[in-house]
Design brief:
Layout: E1 2-9, E2 13-21, E3 27-36, H1 39-46, H2 51-69, E4 75-80, H3 90-101, E5 106-107, H4 110-122, H5 127-130, E6 134-140, E7 145-151, E8 154-161, H6 165-174, H7 181-201, E9 208-211, E10 225-227, E11 230-232, H8 233-245, H9 255-276, E12 281-283, H10 289-300, H11 310-324, H12 329-345, H13 347-350, H14 354-366, H15 378-388, H16 396-408, H17 416-419, H18 425-443, E13 452-459, E14 464-471, H19 476-485, H20 487-493, E15 496-503
Parallel strand pairs: 1-4, 4-5, 6-9, 9-12, 14-15
Antiparallel strand pairs: 1-2, 2-3, 6-7, 7-8, 10-11, 11-12, 13-14
Helix pairs in contact: 2-3, 4-10, 6-9, 7-9, 8-9, 11-14, 12-14, 12-18, 14-16, 14-18, 15-16, 16-18, 18-19, 18-20
Length: 504
């Protein structure tokens, strides 16, 4: 058994959760402490974290860290939300936290933050029931709303709207003199959510809504609930509207009033979501990013076995993107298979990880999507699509690496000096190696006719990667262009790929 503690600086509070992790069993929360602190409000107003807020933040972090140490944890993870990146003085803030408390706080990017919350939700025993059919999962944060679509158990798409609870509360302050301020706010929310609905849900509407349960929202255990965390949508919406009527919007700067204003913002977001995305059932699992971080730690240390195949979810999203941009699927399937075969055959020489293998598969699936916009500028368009697409499960840095691989697949490599501001040396070499594999694999199906059958790959003692293929049609085109694609491969691995053709 291990004890794991996680401290998180959120938009409106700093919180601590301590978990017991027993191998083969679920997480057990043994403590939860929370301190209200409007960090995001400070950043919005001043563009930075002011000394007063920083002082309270440091004191709270120190107190929570000391509290965590009482449980003698195997590890304490301290992190902050992506919204902190908007503070002009973030580096100085992190430096002061480290000097005064000894704590090194990690700032998550949005992709990782949302993925961890998804990992927490997908670790719930009834998750497969939640996404059976067509389901939208909604993660409401302080600064954004993340909307993810599932269809028949497959992860299809994920998008975020820059309009979270704190932003709504800020907008409400500007409307507080209006008699119909709530209606005005709902109108704006309907518009924002409506864009997602019209683009991804209108053709086939969802039947279920999964709302990542926020600590400000205490849904009733009443006739609305079929069982814990599972509700009839009409009864749930009725409860939301009744709760909104119970609140009087107060523009006072007092903490309690601010807390109520934020609660009202969440309620308005719930109402707009349920009215703009009508469904029959609602799930509201009571999880947070703390559970996501703890599950991530447990999976990484093989203490628990994931209930959901996260790698499969990532690839499912990529195939949906490829389909959206009308990429030729037979070629992509063959290319993905060839890339994996080359990767596995070169295991002793490439020095790459299983995570890099996944990134290579993503590169193969998405490498052609830019042709939908411009055939002539496919490399640039593909890179742009990948950089700006949300693929839950990949970090922002990983998306940038994949974008560079697909770009260099068609363009000349840039030197490390030209890329060192973005990538480390190890990341740069990974990009070069993945590109080299992608180029060779693509050359084997240059005609997009899938001529090569029964492909076998062997790394021999002469430093040659022998690619043996059976072919019904001539591989003259592939052979003719193959030589131009192997130079990067030879440079990266010191191995020369060779084609041996067996005509059927």
């Amino acid at each position: 058994m291990k004890t794991f503690a996680t401290i998180y600086v959120g938009s409106y509070a700093i919180s601590l959760k301590v978990f017991e992790i027993t191998k083969g069993k679920r997480l057990k929360r043994i403590d939860h402490v929370r301190a209200h602190l409007e960090v995001i409000e400070d950043i919005y107003k001043n563009g930075r974290i002011t000394p007063e807020v920083l002082h309270r933040m440091i004191k709270t972090l120190h107190d929570f860290y000391e509290t965590a140490q009482m449980y003698q944890p195997d590890e304490v993870h301290v992190s902050g939300g992506n919204f902190l990146s908007a503070a002009e003085n973030l580096l100085f803030v992190l430096d002061q936290i480290k000097i005064q408390t000894g704590i090194e706080m990690e700032i998550m990017d949005n992709a990782m933050q949302r993925y961890l919350i998804y990992e927490a939700v997908s670790s719930q025993p009834d998750f497969e029931n939640m996404i059976d059919g067509r389901t939208v999962m909604v993660d409401i944060g302080g600064s954004i709303i993340q909307l993810s679509l599932f269809s028949d158990g497959k992860f299809v798409n994920s998008q975020h709207i820059r309009l979270g609870a704190t932003r709504v509360a800020d907008n409400l302050r500007h409307l507080d003199q209006k008699a119909d301020f709530r209606e005005q706010m709902l109108e704006m929310l309907y518009k924002e959510i409506g864009v997602f609905y019209n683009m991804f849900l209108k053709q086939v509407p969802p039947t279920k809504l999964v709302i990542v349960h926020n600590q400000l929202m205490d849904a009733p255990r009443s006739k609305a609930a079929k069982k814990d965390d599972h509700y009839n949508a009409k009864e749930f919406l009725k409860f939301i509207k009744q709760s909104i009527k119970a609140y009087y919007y107060n523009v006072s700067e007092e903490d309690e009033a601010q807390f109520d204003n934020l609660r009202l913002s969440y309620l308005l977001l719930y109402q707009s979501l349920m009215e703009r995305i009508p469904v029959g059932e609602v799930y509201a699992p009571f999880v947070s990013i703390h559970e996501g971080i703890a599950y991530h730690y447990a999976y990484a240390n093989k203490l628990l076995k994931p209930l959901r195949d996260m790698e499969k979810d990532i690839l499912s999203q990529c195939w949906a993107i490829a389909e959206r941009y009308n990429s030729y699927q037979p070629h992509l399937k063959v290319l993905e298979k060839l890339c994996v075969m080359i990767f596995d055959a070169m295991k002793k020489r490439h020095g790459l990880t299983t995570r890099d293998r996944l990134l290579l598969r993503v590169c193969a699936i998405l490498h052609d999507c830019g042709k939908y916009i411009s055939i002539a500028e496919a490399a640039t368009c593909t890179a742009t699509i990948i950089e700006t697409s949300e693929i839950l499960g990949l970090t922002e840095k990983e998306r940038l690496m994949i974008a560079r691989v697909t770009y260099f697949h068609r363009k000349e490599f840039l030197s490390y000096e030209e890329m060192r501001d973005v990538f480390s040396g190890d990341e740069y070499f990974t990009i070069i190696k993945l590109t080299a594999i992608l180029r060779v694999a693509n050359a084997l199906d240059k005609s997009h006719k899938q001529k090569a059958k029964n492909v076998k790959m062997t790394l021999n003692q002469k430093d040659e990667l022998v690619i043996t293929v059976d072919a019904e049609d001539s591989l003259t085109l592939e052979r003719g262009l193959f030589g131009d694609k192997v130079h990067a491969f030879v440079d990266a691995f010191g191995v020369r790929p060779l084609i041996r053709e067996k005509r059927l």
